Amino acid sequence: MDKIQEEIIEEFSIYDDWLDKYDYLISLSDELPVIDPAHRTEEYLINGCQSRVWVDAREEEGKLYFSADSDAIITRGIIALLIRVMNGRTPQEVLDMDLYFIEAIGLQANLSPTRANGLLAMIKQMKLYALAYANKTR
Q1: Contact assessment for residue 68 and residue 31, using Cβ atoms and an 8 Å cutoff
Q2: Marked catalytic residue, from 28, 46, 49, 78
Q3: 12-65 tens-digit pLDDT
Q4: Could you tell me which residues are beta bridge partners of residue 67?
Q5: Measured between alpha carbons, how far is 103 from 35 in angstroms, rounded to an integer?
Q6: Three-state DSSP state, 41
Q7: What DSSP element (H or E) covers 69?
Q8: Phi first, then psi: what are they for 137, rounded to 5°?
Q9: Which region holds residue 55: left if phi is over 0, alpha if psi is between -120 and 50, else beta?
């Protein structure tokens, strides 16, 4: 089992109501690693999100580290969760990762269709970064 994903599942299990879970998700937006303002451009913008979401990745000593921003506070919380799970992993680990916490906490099921599509677009972009870095090291 993945320790970080298990922590997230436990944190969300405290709340019975999805309104409380949304409030918690919003509070997580404060933990979002700040993206360099130079990367808050069209080049880093994720297509497929209802809100505007910028994601960047860098590699240090074989591990990936993401930063991001969004103009929507719930989306900021969602990307903060994804970064929390994927940060500090090798590109291959990110590519192979099963993000089971999303289903376990009921996140995708409780998002609007446009936000659910945005979630998938964020995951896809982060995995594309991982693929690019994995290919770079081969």
Answers
A1: no
A2: 49
A3: 999 999 999 999 999 999 888 889 999 999 999 998 777 899 999 999 999 999
A4: 56
A5: 27
A6: coil
A7: strand 63-70
A8: -90, -5
A9: beta
Residue with tokens 């291959």: 92
Region label for 37, one of left (φ > 0), alpha (ψ between -120 and 50) or beta (otherwise) = alpha
Q: Position of tokens 């099963």?
A: 98
Pair 90, 62: CB distance under 8 Å: yes
State yes or no: is 49 an active-site residue. yes
Residue with the two structure tokens 């945005």: 118
Longest dimension (CA), the chain: 46
Which amino acid, 18? W
**Which amino acid is it at 28?**
L
**Residue in the block written with tokens 């320790």:** 3
User: Can you list the alpha helix ranges (DSSP code H) found in the chain?
Assistant: 3-13, 18-28, 73-86, 91-96, 101-104, 113-136
- At 47 the three-state DSSP class reads coil
Helix (H, G, I), strand (E, B) or coil at 46: coil
**Which pTM value belongs to this model?**
0.93
Per-residue b/e over 37-56, b at no fewer than 16 CB within 10 Å?
A: eebbeeebebeebebebbbb
